[in-house]
Amino acid sequence: VQLVESGGGLVQPGGSLRLSCAASGFTFSRYGMSWYRQAPGKEREWVASISSADYPSYKDSVKGRFTISRDNAKNSVYLQMDSLKPEDTAVYYCKTVYGRDYWGQGTQVTVSS
After folding, report:
1. How far apart are CA 104 and CA 30, in angstroms?
2. 3-class secondary-structure state, position 61
3. 21, 24, 27, 31: which is closest to 1 by C-alpha?
4. For the purposes of burial, counting CB atoms within 10 Å of the CB of 67, is it exposed (0-12), middle (13-18) or buried (19 or more)?
5. What is the pLDDT of residues 18-73, one digit of tens each?
6. Which residues fall within 8 angstroms of residue 84, CB to CB, at 6 or more apart?
């Protein structure tokens, strides 16, 4: 199993970013996918998930601003992040559970003016 995130960067408050996670090594369409984040000095926290049936769920603080989606043809999951705030600054990770937890290497998102 391999998960590779991309799309992070530096963005001003109120801006947008789209994160991608490319998956391989398992039958992607059969498994739920999640995004987590870890800010400096803080615990890693759950952000959003999407089930194999395409059902999304979100952390309260990102509802209405973030959208998780998946493309089974591309074995990829995405996180569209709008109206970004400085408190969204973190390393963002994608995760799946395939017997055990698998994590990507993370992508840095920095929201700052």
Report:
1. 18
2. helix
3. 24
4. middle
5. 999 999 999 999 999 999 999 999 999 999 999 999 999 999 999 999 999 999 99
6. 11, 13, 14, 15, 16, 17, 65, 109, 111
